[in-house]
Structure formats: C-alpha cells, structure tokens
Amino acid sequence: MALSPRRGAPAPLASLKSGLALRWREASARERRLMLGAFVVVAGALVWMVLLRPALRTESLAPQRIAQLQEQLAQARGQAEELARLAARPPVKAQDADLGGAAARWLRAHGAQVQAAPLPGSVTLQVQHLPASDLAPFARAARQEWAASVVSARLKLDADGSTLSGSIDLRAQQAASGASAQGSPEQEP
Question: Can you list the alpha helix ranges (DSSP code H) found in the chain?
Fold first, then answer.
C-alpha cells in the first residue's frame, strides 16, 4: 500500500478524502445543509444505540437486580448461620448405616441429581441442581438423621440463580463414647 506524501495516510484514504472535499465545495448551500442534517441524524442514532440506550436499560434494571442479589445474600447468610449452629451441636446416634445411600435418597427426593462416592466413615456427593433453600435442611438431616456432619461444601450457584451444583463431603460422627477421642488430634505413626 503506497503512502501519500501528506502525513503518511494511505493513498486510497487520501484520494477518498480529497474526493469528498471536492464534492463538498461543489455542493450548493441547500445540499450542504441536507448533508449536515443527515450527518446529525445518523450521529444521533449511533449515540442513542451505542451509548444511551444500554445505559438507560442498565439503570432501569439495576434496582431489581440489586434487590434479587440482596435477597440471595440474606438467604445465604441465614443458611451459613444455621450450618454453624448445626456444626456446634453434639453428634446424635446414627439411624442409617448407609450414609451415602441415605444422603443420595434425600437429595433426589428434593429434586437434585446426585452421585455418591462412599469411603469408610464418609461420603463425597457430586450434586447438580440442588435448590439453594434445601442446603440447610440437608445439613440438618445429616446431623439429626444420619449422625453425620457436612465437612465441606464446594457449591456454585447455577445460571438460574436458585439451584446449586458442586460437591458436598459428609463425615459420620463417632459414637458418644468416642467423643473424647474425637476432640483430641490424631497422631500419625
């Protein structure tokens, strides 16, 4: 691409610019006003479509989105408080020997898809589409019905904003006689 001698602009752009300048000089005053009017209309439409309309749309939707996010935050805080209260309670006697099966049945009954990976005394559950409102009741059921506690939960909010997906680790609690052993750290050989 050859460069024009004037300010290093590419030759096709320079020839287009000179052609437009010539056309402008040859145009009558009425044509110039019409061209300026058309330019103002096109520029105004572009400013509206690119800058103003998206900003106004965001501004109108922001209060609803903020209220929705505040509601989700309040719900998450409430669940975190309930989980902390449940974790502080002493363990109860186990009523179901199959921790993974009992937890999977409970989750499926509440609309979640689940796969359980049982280990001795614990289970890791891969969960999809667990209603967020059912997380605290699940932890309560684990504590009260299966003598287990939620050790960790790595969950993310799904795109719909009301369900969770990820993994939950449950550990069976030791019997009351083993409570003193549970409180002391285990030593590695």
Answer: 11-26, 29-47, 53-88, 99-109, 135-145, 179-183
